[in-house]
Structure formats: C-alpha cells, structure tokens
Write a structure and sequence with these properties.
The protein has 539 residues and is α/β, with parallel strands linked by helices. Among the domains are: 12-197, Rossmann fold (3-Layer(aba) Sandwich); 357-430, Luciferase, domain 3; 435-530, ANL, C-terminal domain (GMP Synthetase, Chain A, domain 3). Helix content is 28%, strand content 25%. The chain has 16 helices and 26 strands. The chain has a seven-stranded mixed β-sheet with strand order 7-6-5-3-4-8-9, sandwiched between helices. A five-stranded mixed β-sheet has the order 2-1-11-10-12, sandwiched between helices. The longest helix is centred in the first third of the chain and has 17 residues, at 41-57. The relative contact order is 0.09.
C-alpha cells in the first residue's frame, strides 16, 4: 500500500515561508539601544532569504556550522531560519561560558563563520586568536561597523542590503542537520548536540499543543530564555509557525526591562528559568507593573518550587513547569493538572504543578534502578530517568562519551526521580547532587523547595558534605529576601514539621548570593568547592 500520502519533508523552511504567506502583516518587535525596532513576518522572510544569499557569497558550504554570539534580537531570529533553511547548521554559542569553554566549542564544532552582536564584539575579540576554523565574522547592530580587531569583519546590514531577495532555499532531506547546541555541563568539556529539521519541526508541533504551552496566533510571545541556550526552548520556531506577535528583549535585559516590555506590548507568553521569575517578583516589589496580560509562563532549567508558583498564582499568572535538557531539544514533559483533578484543593493541584510533568506525545520515559531494573510508576520507586523519542538525540557530536549516555535508543539523563501513577515525573536530584546519609537518600531538590517556602527566603541550595558518622549530611545555603533577617534556629523550626527529622540540615549558612551557571542554574559544584574545608558544628 505505497503512495497513499505525499512524502513531504518536515523542514524549518516551511515555517518561515508559511508565516510570510499567512501572517505577512503580523509584528515582530525587538528592544534596541534606540528603543524598539518593529517589522513584520514578510520582512523576516525577505531578510532570511537575503541571509541565505550572503552565506553563499561568503563561501559557507552546505553542512558547515554558522556560529552565533548574540542576544535575543530580531537579527538572531533571522539566523534561526536563514541558516538552516539554506542547508547550513545554526550553532548558537553560549556567551556566558568561560572563554576556554567557548574556544573549545567553536573549535570542536569547526564553525566556519560567527555572527556577533555589536555589544559582544569586545568579548569575542579576546577569543578570536584561539578560534582555528573561523574564516570570517559578521557584526550585527545598528549603525556603521565598529572598529574591531576581528578579521575579516563585515557589517550584517551592509551584506543584506547588497543581497537578492529571491528565495534561495534548496530542497532538503528532513534528516539534514539544522542546528546544534553544546551542553553547559559542570564536569569535563561541553558536549555537542545536533538537531535535524525533522526533530525541531516535531518538537514545535508538540510545544504548541493545548496540553503543552498552547501557543496560538493571538498570542504575543516573548522568549526571555536566551536564544543561545537550547534554542530558546524552541519558542522562536513555535511562535513563527502559528504566526504570533513576537517580542525580543535585546541586549542584557534587566527584570525591569522585562516587566516593562510585558506591560507595554501586552505579552501573553514568556519563559525563563526560576532565577528570571524571582527577578520579576523583585521588580514588582519596587513598582507595580501591569502583567495581567500573561496567560502562560513556562519555567524550567531547575525545579520550580511551590512557593514560586503560589506567588505568581496570587498575581493571577499561571507558571507552567516544564522539563527538558539540551539533549531533548529541549522540551520533553509539561505539568498541567488533569481533568480528574479539577475538584482537588488548589494546594494539592499546586503540588502536581510543581512536578516536572507528563511526557509529551511520542516521548517515552522510564525510571531505572542501579541494577538496571525498570521501576514501577508508583511515585515512590526511585531511579535514573531515561528518555527516548523523535526529538531526543541519539548520540553526542564526535564525542566518545556517547557510549556512557545512550543505550539502545534510551538517553540516560543523569537525573534521579520518580514517576507516579498518573505519569507525572518528579526529579528528586541530579545523580551527582543526591545526598546519601547513613545509607538513605535525601532529595536536595525537595529540601530546597521546602526551605524556599519560608516567606523570608529568596533562594536556597542544599549540598551534601562529608560526615564522619553518616557519610554525608545536608548543608543549607540560604539567600534571604531584601531587608529580612532569619536565624538558623528559626529556619530549622520551620522545617521540622515539614520534612523527615533525618532530612533536617546539620547547619545553615546565609549568603548574599548563590553561584550560578551560564544558564542560571545554581552551581552546586562551585558551592561544594567553596565549602570543601567546612567543619560541622559540635553538637
């Protein structure tokens, strides 16, 4: 029974062509140093086509990697489509990594060219002598090309101005590499992850489902999660597919910038890590911005505590917890309460929303014990989370570490957790962060979330440190909200009725800030290093 359906490939090219045809007049806005730049999907398509011609003129061959060193802007969006649609591979570089990590990534990927924001040129100039494969640089911004030691360097707008506007995009196989990102792992060199056109298109469909983020044409979508981190969680692709108005926050936005953009442009969907949401709450304490337009705020990257959900609920804003990794493109599960839970008390439903959610269609999950046995979905049995699906990668790019992370189609995430009878995943720890005390496991994530429920606590991280008797014991590192005071004894008294007695931290230290990774997660390895000579208080 062959030939029943037309075998059309799933390509990102279709998304931008469709947007130009059906939503040609819809707006795309981008914050710049001069205010807000505004244009349309018709402009996006035209400029993406010109970009394809520019890459050809500069001698960038099909399959070569095109690096981006840029913030969330309309020009970066053009690269999101013009590069993969032309048969090249979009490689977003994390500007917040250490210089030696960035140099390793560029050289390992063999980037042929790098597109860089004007504001980031000084940072890239310091790295340029180490970048062996890069043949040219294109600087993106308003006004003339700044003086730079990058050679050869071109101005993006000059190149586009001279390029044809005809559609240069070739027919591609849907398995063609479209984009790549590198993990921001805390041990060893970052690992490369390559996404095909097919994977990204299927991921986009899943993201737009009603039981995911429910993206729609009437939305105003502002990706705050960086475009250099896991493709901004795929939001630029999803927003373009459904023709939503898009808003880009530009260079180094502050929480106040984000709130102002939401208020001014009536943003309905934005997304970021918990640190970003905490920043928004802090900004609201200084000034009452109108964020009532928000209907959905996807949040992930690290566990979203119930206390954070509750604070946004009080504002009438729904924060939706999602889980994924660079290796999962990145969305794999989303947490919405089921219809059978409709009559549950809000507090009970919030506990469901604080889980990492149910797997999206075509994504499979399982929990595997140390002995290799698959664990039951009972919400109690703990093991390592493994996932597989059509947008889950099957190996790392040119990396011998693949063998340790992939097994017969399953990706070993390194996350420890449970899955309950309804199919909700709950991450209890990273394998390297779980605390083993006297032969029993303590979930640092659950303990952190409980600490953050205290009204005076802004952030918390719990690490396991060596203990003479118990092997490891938890140390709580706590950041208080501005102007608040709290003692160790008061915090432990708050925790005592809420967690098992043997989970109570053996000590509490109060810090001005927690160290963060390049993507806004708490850097627990750095915390452990900072406290490597710590001595437990005498009891």
């Amino acid at each position: 029974m062959n030939g029943l359906m037309m075998d059309e490939p799933l390509l990102l090219t279709h998304l931008v062509r469709r947007a130009a045809r059906l939503f040609w007049e819809k707006r795309i806005l981008s914050r710049t140093q001069f205010g807000v730049t505004e244009y349309t999907y018709a402009d996006l398509y035209r400029r993406a086509c010109q970009l394809g011609h520019v890459l050809e003129r500069l001698g960038i061959k099909a399959g070569e990697r095109v690096g981006t060193f840029a913030w969330n802007t309309f020009r970066h969006l053009e690269l999101y489509f013009g590069v993969p649609a032309s048969g090249r591979v979009l490689h977003t570089l994390n500007i917040r990594l250490f210089p030696e990590q960035i140099a390793y990534i560029v050289n390992h990927a063999e980037d042929a060219i790098i597109f860089v924001d004007y504001a980031l040129i000084p940072q890239l100039e310091k790295l340029a002598p180490e970048l062996r494969s890069v043949r040219a640089y294109v600087a993106m911004g308003d006004g003339p090309l700044p003086e730079t030691s990058l050679k050869p360097a071109y101005a993006y707008e000059d190149l586009l101005r001279e390029a044809p506007t005809s559609d240069p995009f070739p027919a591609l196989d849907e398995q063609t590499a479209a984009a790549m990102c590198y993990t921001s792992g805390t041990t060893g060199n970052p690992k490369g992850v390559v996404y095909s056109h097919r994977a990204l298109v299927l991921h986009t469909f899943a993201q737009c489902m009603a039981d995911a983020f429910g993206l729609r044409e009437s939305d105003v979508i502002m990706p705050v999660v960086p475009m250099f981190h896991a493709n901004a969680w795929g939001l630029p692709y999803g927003a373009t597919m459904i023709g939503a108005t898009q808003v880009y926050p530009g260079v180094q936005p502050t929480p106040e910038d984000i709130c102002q953009l939401i208020e001014t442009h009536r943003v309905t969907v934005t997304a970021g890590v918990p640190t970003v949401l905490l920043g928004i709450l802090a900004a609201l304490e200084k000034r009452p911005y109108d964020l009532s337009s928000l209907r959905c705020v996807p949040c992930g990257g690290s566990a979203v505590p119930e206390s954070l959900l509750e604070r946004f609920d009080a504002l009438g804003i729904t924060v939706v917890q999602a889980w994924g990794m660079t290796e999962t493109s990145p969305l794999a599960s989303v947490s919405h309460p089921l219809s059978v839970m409709a009559d549950w008390p809000e507090e009970r439903k919030r506990k469901v929303r604080a889980k990492q959610g149910r797997p999206l269609p075509f994504v499979e999950m399982r929990i595997v014990a140390e002995d290799g046995r698959e664990q039951p979905w009972d919400g109690k049995s703990v093991g390592e989370l493994e996932v597989r699906g059509p947008w889950i990668v099957g190996s790392y790019y040119r990396d011998e570490r693949s063998a340790a992370s992939f097994d017969r189609g399953w990706f070993k995430t390194g996350d420890i957790g449970t899955i309950d009878e309804y199919g909700y995943l709950q991450i209890t720890d990273r394998a390297k962060d779980v605390i083993k005390s006297g032969g029993e496991w303590i979930s640092s994530v659950e303990l952190e979330n409980t600490i953050m429920a205290h009204p005076k606590v802004a952030e918390a991280a719990v690490i396991g440190l060596p203990h003479e008797r118990w092997q490891e014991r938890p140390l709580a590192c706590v950041v208080l909200r501005p102007g608040e005071t709290l003692t160790k004894e008061e915090l432990l008294a708050f925790l005592e009725p809420r967690v098992a007695k043997w989970w109570l931290p053996d000590d509490v230290v109060f810090l001005d800030a927690l160290p963060k990774t390049s993507v806004g997660k708490v850097a627990k390895r750095e915390l452990r290093e900072n406290f490597r000579n710590y001595r437990w208080p005498a009891k």
